# Entry
Amino acid sequence: MISEEDIKRGATLSRLHLTADEVTTATQNVGGILEHFSVIQNVNTEGVKSAEENRDLSNITKPDEAKIPNISTPAALLANAPATLKDQIKVKAVFKEAENI
# Structure
């Protein structure tokens, strides 16, 4: 069973500030969870394969194949661009115009 001191220590390590009521509630809740784990630990697992023994799985993925668009010509490159203007790729402005040069 877990004690209130264990809960307080865990709260301190987690930088949680718990009231006395919260410590009591957390102690009961965590205690209940730990009781469920003890029930699970007592389950008879004879004849059940472990996860390591279940290795009869096969790889079901397919190989990666690059699907690169054909951009070997200027026309193909412009056709794949999101925006064009006068046979050039249109992009957003990067520099601000100088006011007085």
User: Anything to note?
Assistant: Residues 4-41 form one domain.
